[in-house]
Amino acid sequence: VSELRRDPITGRSVIIAPERPFPRTTPVTAGGRDACPFCEGRESIAGRELLAWRPSGSAANGPDWQVRVVPNRVPVLRVESDFAETSDVLLQSLGGLGANEVVIESPRHDASFASMKADDIARVLWVWRERMRDLHRDIRLKSFLVVKSVGRTAGAMLDHPHSQLIALPLVPQHLEDELFGAAAYYRTGRRCAFCDLIAEEKEARLRIVGGDGHTLAVMPFAARVPFETWVLPQAHGAMFEDASDATLAAVAERVRDVVMRLDRVLVSPPYNLLLHTAPRGEMARTCYHWHFEIIPRLESVPGLAWDGGIYINPVAPEEAARAMRAVDSLRA
Amino acid sequence: VSELRRDPITGRSVIIAPERPFPRTTPVTAGGRDACPFCEGRESIAGRELLAWRPSGSAANGPDWQVRVVPNRVPVLRVESDFAETSDVLLQSLGGLGANEVVIESPRHDASFASMKADDIARVLWVWRERMRDLHRDIRLKSFLVVKSVGRTAGAMLDHPHSQLIALPLVPQHLEDELFGAAAYYRTGRRCAFCDLIAEEKEARLRIVGGDGHTLAVMPFAARVPFETWVLPQAHGAMFEDASDATLAAVAERVRDVVMRLDRVLVSPPYNLLLHTAPRGEMARTCYHWHFEIIPRLESVPGLAWDGGIYINPVAPEEAARAMRAVDSLRA
After folding, report:
1. Of the four, A38, A43, A215, B288, which is 20 to 30 A from B76 by CA?
2. Cα dihedral sign for B275, B236, B126, B228?
3. Edge to edge, what strands does the sheet with B291-296 contain?
4. Cβ of residue B221 closer than 8 Å to a chain A Cβ
5. If DSSP codes are grouped into helix, strand and coil, which group holds residue B210?
6. Could you give phi then psi for residue A119, rounded to 5 degrees?
């Protein structure tokens, strides 16, 4: 049974999940196509669907779908768990309450965000949003994590394109830090830090990867790893759940373009795509701005950066952005 | 030239270090003994020493030493750099000011903290402390990171036992979070959270790995990875620089014991050993408590945990501590 614990000093969240496989020093080879539980035709192995995009009106849990959501078979958190907060001041645990779903992003084993059409990616975003809206009805769930992992180094256990959706009964530390910083900025000038950042980056033109009237793909000034890229909607919005279909379509095209460029420049690197979205509540509405962070995982995280202390990045984001923009000329 | 940048929203620190080698997807094999610049007899390759433990009174920069400190040949930060803070509110950079030294922990290529004597490890701790005391004279340097990396997965580029000492002109986010939590706890009861934690863990006896009258090795309640272990001096002290020789000797024996047990239980895992010590200033004196954190690196950091958001740990610290304590019976 899982348990969600908070570090007494830093507030870091850790899920103690004894049902998960014990990690091995030797990497497990990701399963091949023959054993893949996510391929079309193996719906009963993947599990009963919570939601699917079935354009042809095909029956649930059968083939002929484009995106499909199933519960994680070894969930790190469960909706049925008790919300049993311990009373100890130093050693706080929240039981294993939460939700953990797997989004199978394509029926095709070898699809990728670089090869998929923007419409296909928009459907994945649509599914994330719909599942989050549904889980929102459980008021015990406070925040969401959506993580897409590509490649073993990025933590993917299967090659078939998929992502994890996790709903938490608390706000994790990294999001709390972000909210705190955004709120402090807001208090000084009544402005969203992300909106100002978008304006400043568009003016500077040093770190921009791409954009249109609705979205911006930009490398952050303090990029933690080479080619870290953020994709932001230009219009202010704290919560991904509130994004319109039109915004999702524009963001999907921007994400596709970034991943395609990464694949060209870094030769299909492993990467994580992480959704950053405000937790439940009014506080963050004015000062937070949802976005995606794309983190290429070119090497194992070094000791110094292990706990988010200090990152050492050998590639300035200005140089990386230049290389990403140059992909256009290669296509001509 | 390096540059220390702060993320505008979270305050995370990143060193942009274009002189560092560009990371590769394929891991570099750590150099063998024949090419090792840290072995005894190759002192001129390792660099001119800043400090060395030379019991025989041998001459500087020659052989016959037990611990030796040299500047990092490709430093991520430099003492000579300008402290040129940028004025932009959102995009802050501190130039590349700082220090980056390498501590060669033994003249022997295949030594390890598991096989070294406690006295040998105490000399390494002594050297860390002396270098920090010396660097403290530069008031621009605010905090220290000491990181020992063992194994490629943990970020080590060489097998020869060594550690990195980094002095920073700011307090990194993970330490700020820790200080903030410790200060909040102190305000409620005028007590050090770590001192209370030590008392509570000694009472519970669930997560203890080992200890004596002066030190405690304990697995944290919210352990982030399997077999994460903290080594704390039992007497309150915020700064490692102020530790006595006797404390260093006791802590060295405790660290040796933990690494020996990890080597037995996990079969010589890659790991990081990180020093957590208070930054310059009076604020932390009462509420912070220096300690070591030992982080086995059994697999690459998964996407969810990438930025310190949520860690998923498949081994409860109570189970891991039990396995570590059982090593005693194996020795009989």
Report:
1. B288
2. negative
3. B51-53, B67-71, B99-104, B162-168, B143-150, B271-276, B291-296, B229-233, B215-218, B208-211
4. yes
5. strand
6. -60, -40
Element (H, E) at B16: strand B13-16
pLDDT at A211 over 60: yes
- The strand pairing partners of B217, in sequence order, are B210, B231
Confidence of residue B26 (pLDDT cuts 50, 70, 90): very low
Identify the CA nearest to A79 among candidates A62, A111, A101, A49. Answer: A101
- Which chain B positions have a beta carbon within 8 Å of A25's beta carbon? 153, 266-267, 269-270, 298-299
- The answer for B 190-219 residues in CB contact with A (under 8 A) is 193-194, 196-197, 200
Alpha-carbon separation of residue B327 from A144, A244, B201, B210, B321 (angstroms): 41, 58, 20, 11, 10
Cβ <8 Å between A155 and B303? yes
Phi, psi of A295 (to 5 degrees): -120, 100
Helix (H, G, I), strand (E, B) or coil at B35: helix
Q: What is the pLDDT of residues A225-269, one digit of tens each?
A: 889 999 999 999 999 999 999 999 999 999 999 999 999 998 889
Residue A159 has pLDDT above 50, yes or no: yes
Query: Taking 80 as the threshold, does the pLDDT of residue A24 lie above it?
Result: no
Global pTM reads 0.90
**Residue length of chain A:** 332
